[in-house]
Automatic annotation (TrEMBL):
This is Ribosomal protein L38e. Keywords: Ribonucleoprotein, Ribosomal protein. It comes from Capronia coronata CBS 617.96. Gene3D superfamilies: 3.30.720.90. GO terms for molecular function: structural constituent of ribosome. InterPro entries: Ribosomal_eL38, Ribosomal_eL38_sf. GO terms for cellular component: cytosolic large ribosomal subunit. Belongs to the eukaryotic ribosomal protein eL38 family. GO terms for biological process: protein-RNA complex assembly; translation.
Length: 66
């Protein structure tokens, strides 16, 4: 099931959980949105960003095993 997260700090906390299996980054060509998705045991958590600089910083701060 999907769940949308709006807070960046909460998204990073979810990424550091033990049940977080993988992270994906999707870039939209039309709307210039960047979606970051983290798969956990029960939900796929999604963070939608408009700023690509913020997305790059968040991508670098994700745990390396994700």
């Amino acid at each position: 099931m999907p769940a949308q997260v709006t807070d960046i700090k909460q998204f990073l906390e979810i990424a550091r959980r033990k049940d977080a299996k993988g992270a994906r980054v999707k870039k939209s060509a039309k709307s210039k949105d960047i979606k970051m998705k983290i798969r956990c045991k029960r939900y796929v958590y999604t963070l939608i960003l408009k700023d690509s600089d913020k997305a790059d910083k968040i991508k670098q701060s994700l745990p390396p095993s994700k």
